[in-house]
């Protein structure tokens, strides 16, 4: 018998380090949130205009309160759906959401440095929703120190955000050793 034991999850030797500059990650998060909000806002306005147009076309008198509630509900559903499509479906398909594409970031599995699995991406999306809704307001009010470079967002659900340039170099990026700070030329 062999004394070599195999791990249940093989560890990738060439795992790129996580991004050292959190400005990129924050830009990606901001753009993804903006995408979801714009989807919801456009759907809400469209729903209100259509409801009011149908009410005047049929000559019925519909209250603005009812129109606003239905518009908000539709906007919220479309916002969550747009966020899911961006954060889960697009990430599983292309390794990055819209915001991460703009910031030149990719989402990879920690164990194999490949695309995230669907359920990993779903759990990460739900974790991100809870983080943004619950933890960020407390951090913004400085009531807690949740974030930080190695905070709970780091490697959430077995996924890591890496620079696309480091991913192409398969862990051989010279800046990985210096945490992606620009090297000074002599």
Would you spell out the secondary-structure blueprint of this structure?
Elements: H1 22-58, H2 64-94, H3 98-102, E1 105-109, H4 118-140, E2 159-163, H5 164-168
Antiparallel strand pairs: 1-2
- Output the strand order for the largest sheet: 1-2
Radius of gyration: 22 Å
| Biggest β-sheet description | 2 strands, antiparallel
Give the uncertain stretches in residue-range form: 1-13, 182-186
Query: How would the global form be characterised?
Result: elongated
User: What's the total count of β strands?
Assistant: 2
Helix content: 40-55%
Determine the structural class based on helices, strands and strand pairing.
mainly alpha
Please tally the helical runs, counting DSSP H or I stretches of 4 or more residues: 5
Q: Termini, distance in Å?
A: 56 Å
Q: Note the run of SSEs as H and E.
A: HHHEHEH
Strand content: 5-15%
The averaged pLDDT comes out at: 77
């Amino acid at each position: 018998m062999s004394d070599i034991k195999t791990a249940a999850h093989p560890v990738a030797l060439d795992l790129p380090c996580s991004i050292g500059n959190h400005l990129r990650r924050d830009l990606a998060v901001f753009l993804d949130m903006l995408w979801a909000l714009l989807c919801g806002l456009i759907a809400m306005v469209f729903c209100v205009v259509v409801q009011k147009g149908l009410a005047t076309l049929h000559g019925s008198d519909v209250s603005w309160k009812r129109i606003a509630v239905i518009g908000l509900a539709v906007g919220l559903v479309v916002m969550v759906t747009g966020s899911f499509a961006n954060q889960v479906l697009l990430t599983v398909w292309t390794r990055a959401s819209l915001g991460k594409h703009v910031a030149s970031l990719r989402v990879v599995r920690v164990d194999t440095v490949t695309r995230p699995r669907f359920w990993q991406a779903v759990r990460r999306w739900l974790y991100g929703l809870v983080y943004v809704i619950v933890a960020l307001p407390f951090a913004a009010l400085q009531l807690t120190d949740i974030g930080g470079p190695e905070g709970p967002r780091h490697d959430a659900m077995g996924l890591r955000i890496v620079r696309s340039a480091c991913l192409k170099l398969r862990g051989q990026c010279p800046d990985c050793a210096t945490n992606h700070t620009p090297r000074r030329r002599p």
